[in-house]
Task: structure prediction
Amino acid sequence: MNEKAIEQKLVLAVKNMGGIAPKFVSPGFDGMPDRLILLPGGRIAFVEVKASGKKPRPLQLARHKLLQGLGFKVYVLDSLAGIKTILSDMGGDAK
Result:
């Protein structure tokens, strides 16, 4: 499945949980994850969306490690099944 389709399903699933999933753009700081997941109750995570079977680039992995070192959850999403896993891990009930 392509990245755009997975990303659209993620945004819809987050919206159905009462949250938002804005596109994250960081000019001058390449490699940051594609989406912020903001759920009720102050739950936040970063999600790198990839086409099925694709892996993050080395710079992206370095940014994930940086964010995780700051205490944030960072996920790599490359399938529709992963959406439920991520949202469940964040303490939500994915619909």
User: Anything to note?
Assistant: Residues 6 and 80 are 6 Å apart (CA to CA).
